[in-house]
């Protein structure tokens, strides 16, 4: 039963992390695109598209981190010292970004400062998330159930590449979200940006996908021997389909299709990462079973989670439903 519970919890943590990426990804993307806004009116509309939901989106980050600490304490104890710097920078960036979101509406004189803080917080948070992902893909050195690597092991050409990939991918999500939520000139500008960001995201996906199997022999074997080699054909095919939906949607001035096609690219990338990692929770050698808390702890926390997760999903869905539709310049943030 212990093994079953640990894998159930691994799926819950993976779901929380993925939900955070796709929900907070587009509002971080709006922050990344913020300096490209043509006017103060465009900036206000951009922020108003996420004003009702941005803080709720970050609930999933708290759940992912808290869940990891509660049910995979060994993984948490290894991951924190390995990624201490990028994680601290990410959290500081999210704090400054949240403060800037609120304060820019309360001042005129300091508004450019808070606008820059909003942009910087968004891009740093996205970049450090990508760096952390790249560092995990490379593998974290564990000896005697403790982190045994160096202070700067997280920083490498590959982790910088994944950091840039996440920044560009989030910007694509932000642009396609604005296509869905805005109209007229701002929507047209975002449609142009989305084309270039889509091409860049596709390039980063291809480059990271080619390099990932060479980060660890286990990845290579998993992707290029049966049955894993089937995914090596299926996933690229689905990526091509998502790209077609993205660019055809942009070309035909569809509003929802580009956003959901962009989400599809993130879904496929996440599936690829999970497949590369499995059955490890921290590559190359710390498995899900080894990192799990005692069976009694897994059972106890699972009871609360079974109640909590549906509630979070319900209020998140309700918030998006209530604030559906276009955001216009006359709509205000309070």
What level of helicity do the residues show? Answer: over 70%
Number of helices: 14
**Unreliable runs, pLDDT <50, ≥5 residues?**
none
- What share of residues are in beta strands? under 5%
**What fold name goes in the CATH topology slot?**
Formate dehydrogenase/DMSO reductase fold
Overall pLDDT metric: 86
Write the CATH architecture name. Up-down Bundle
The end-to-end distance, rounded to whole angstroms, is: 50 Å
What about the largest sheet? 2 strands, antiparallel
Q: What kind of assembly state do the chains in view correspond to?
A: single chain
Strand order of the largest sheet: 1-2
Q: Tally the structural domains.
A: 1
So what's the CATH class?
Mainly Alpha
Compact summary:
By secondary structure, the chain is mainly α. The protein is 77% helix and 3% strand.
Can you describe this structure?
The chain has one domain (2-320): Formate dehydrogenase/DMSO reductase fold (Up-down Bundle). The protein has helices at 2-33, 40-50, 54-57, 59-71, 73-82, 84-103, 111-138, 157-181, 184-211, 217-224, 228-251, 257-277, 288-291, 295-322; strands at residues 142-143, 146-147, 280-282, 286-287. The protein is globular and about 60 Å long. The strands form 2 sheets. It has a two-stranded antiparallel ribbon. It is an all-alpha fold. The protein contains 14 helices and 4 strands. 77% of the residues lie in helices and 3% in strands. Helix 4 (59-71) crosses helix 5.
Write a concise keyword list for the protein shown above.
3% strand, globular, single chain, two-stranded antiparallel sheet, Formate dehydrogenase/DMSO reductase fold, mainly alpha, 334 residues, two-stranded antiparallel ribbon
């Amino acid at each position: 039963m212990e093994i079953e519970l640990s894998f159930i919890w691994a799926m819950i943590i993976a779901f929380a992390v993925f939900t955070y990426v796709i929900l907070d990804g587009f509002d971080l993307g709006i922050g990344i695109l913020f300096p490209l806004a043509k006017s103060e009116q465009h900036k206000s509309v951009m922020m108003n598209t996420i004003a009702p939901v941005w803080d709720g989106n970050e609930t999933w980050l708290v759940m992912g981190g808290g869940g990891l600490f509660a049910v995979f304490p060994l993984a948490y104890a290894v991951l924190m010292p390995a990624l201490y710097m990028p994680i601290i920078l990410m959290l500081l960036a999210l704090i400054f970004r949240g403060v800037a979101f609120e304060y820019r509406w309360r001042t005129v004189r300091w508004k450019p400062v808070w606008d820059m803080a909003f942009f910087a917080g968004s891009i740093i948070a996205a970049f450090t998330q990508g760096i952390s992902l790249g560092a995990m893909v490379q593998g974290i050195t564990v000896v005697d159930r403790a982190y045994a690597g160096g202070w700067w092991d997280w920083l490498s050409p590959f982790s910088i590449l994944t950091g840039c990939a996440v920044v560009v991918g989030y910007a694509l999500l932000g642009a396609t979200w604005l296509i869905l939520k805005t109209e007229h000139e701002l929507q047209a500008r975002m449609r142009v940006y989305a084309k270039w960001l889509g091409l860049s995201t596709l390039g980063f996906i291809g480059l990271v996908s080619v390099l990932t199997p060479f980060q660890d022999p286990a990845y290579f074997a998993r992707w290029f021997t049966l049955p894993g080699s089937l995914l090596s054909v299926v996933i690229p095919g689905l990526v091509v389909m998502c790209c077609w939906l993205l660019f055809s949607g942009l070309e035909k001035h569809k509003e929802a299709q580009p956003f959901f096609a962009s989400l599809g690219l993130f879904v496929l990338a996440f599936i690829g990462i999970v497949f590369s990692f499995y059955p490890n929770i921290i590559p190359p050698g710390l498995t899900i079973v080894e990192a799990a808390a005692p069976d009694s702890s897994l059972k106890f926390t699972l009871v609360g989670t079974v109640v909590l997760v549906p509630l979070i999903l319900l209020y998140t869905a309700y918030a998006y439903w209530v604030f559906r539709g276009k955001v216009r310049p006359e709509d205000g943030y309070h």
